[in-house]
Amino acid sequence: MQFIDQAEVEVIAGDGGDGIVAFRREKYVPAGGPAGGNGGPGGSVYVRTVEQLQTLLDFRYAHRFKAENGQRGGRKNMTGATGPDLYLEVPRGTAIYDAHTDELLGDLVTEGQVLCVAQGGKGGLGNRHFLSNRNRAPEHALPGLPGEERRLRLELKLLAEVGIVGLPNAGKSTLIAALSAARPKIADYPFTTLIPNLGVVRRPSGDGTVFADIPGLIEGAHQGLGLGHEFLRHIERTRLLLHLVDATAEHPTENFHTIQAELAAYGHDLIDRPQVLALNKIDALTPEAVTELTQQFADLVPGPVYAISAVAGMGTAPLLQHIWDLLDRAAAEAAIALAEQTLADPVQET
Ligand SMILES: Nc1nc2c(ncn2[C@@H]2O[C@H](COP(=O)(O)OP(=O)(O)OP(=O)(O)O)[C@@H](O)[C@H]2O)c(=O)[nH]1
Ligand SMILES: [Mg+2]
């Protein structure tokens, strides 16, 4: 599947239909009253999330979306037909920006969430509306108003709870393949992963948690080097980062610092996200070497250091247990914060 995670589109709402000038014509009534109907409103353009979609591929070739215009008003005070609304369907996790001002118009995360991105124009008033005591036969009507037009930038940010970060070749894809049903490409050269992979990892309770494997980061990634930075935004929403270090590399601790520096430079509070450290590929090291390296890292990071082998499935159970504990704690803290906030500003009675 092709992964398209950004798109620019133009959306144009329908114009309102014109109001018209008309008069009643009845037998034996020389001059009937005004009877020109109002124009119908133009259709609006909405963006809506759809569960089945995974990418913004639909917007790769189609860039212009126009809702229909409202119809002109009719004789006999008939209001013109309303232009049907137009719905653009996007995957959950799509943020919508005004492409010119960069203003965030909406961040659609829940299933079926809807955002109006271009309001249809109002229909014009027909001459019937201008009937008054002073003017029994108004000769004017108003044109419909134009529909709103906008250029939008759609950005898909994956909704994963755990983001796996590390240098190319650290074994990120191997790990997600070992833990979930995801089957990303794995190879012994850097930049095997070109697009993010999502995998659902089952907890013992049966609940699933989404992990994201993104392309490897390298020094300078935050400035656009390599592939990773393109995809760092996909882990902006994660609640926890799993930092994977290749234990067989020449300088594992330096590699660790490289990634930390990139996360810090990227901003968006990524560096403050709770992080779990795992040393991978320990099947290829002697137990002494593993112990020594684990000790070196224990001095570097606040939390525990996990030594694993993604290929051999060694050490992953305690690593996962720690991740579940952290996620549960984060969820509990969020619930407490919300409760405290609610207590602090009780809803004002009116
Ligand atoms: N010995 C050993 N090799 C591993 C282990 N995990 C991954 N590898 C190997 O390391 C190489 C890179 O693995 P990937 O999973 O593609 O690494 P990645 O981090 O996804 O790499 P990019 O997608 O390029 O960023 C492959 O040859 C894997 O077979 C492990 O636990 N032990
Ligand atoms: Mg990979």
UniProtKB/TrEMBL annotation:
Domain (Obg): residue spans on this chain: 1-159
Assembly mode: Monomer.
Protein's name in the database: GTPase Obg
Native species: Shackletoniella antarctica
Cofactor(s) listed: Mg(2+)
The keyword GTP-binding belongs to this UniProt entry's keyword annotation: yes
Residues where Mg(2+) binds: S173, T193
Matching Gene3D superfamilies: GTP1/OBG domain, P-loop containing nucleotide triphosphate hydrolases
OBG-type G domain segment(s): 160-328
Keywords from the named record: Cytoplasm, GTP-binding, Hydrolase, Magnesium, Metal-binding, Nucleotide-binding
